Amino acid sequence: MPDAPRLSGNPISRILDNDGQRHPVQNVLSVVTIACGLIAFVAGFFPAAHAVACWLGVVGFVGGLYSQYVSATTPERALNIVGIVASFVGVAFGIYHGGFYP
């Protein structure tokens, strides 16, 4: 909405809350999902970090599915999808390199 008032606060809220309303819980869930997914994805490339990739990938995947369920705006949903996919790939690489336990 071009005439919607801009929310004051941090830049992440300005990007994710594009409907003019605040969604602090959904924003935190989306950011945690993308963070877990990216860490799991990167850790999946290192065989020594397979346990980190697996566990953070599972947390990011399950948390991302819940975050997608309660999301309120399209930017939140986009972050959720990227985080869910990265978490899944991180888990797959982690399982390939050794599984959930060191």
UniProtKB/TrEMBL annotation:
The chain crosses the membrane at residues 24-42, 48-66, 78-96. Keywords: Membrane, Transmembrane, Transmembrane helix. It comes from the Bacteria. This is Integral membrane protein. It comes from Streptosporangium jomthongense.
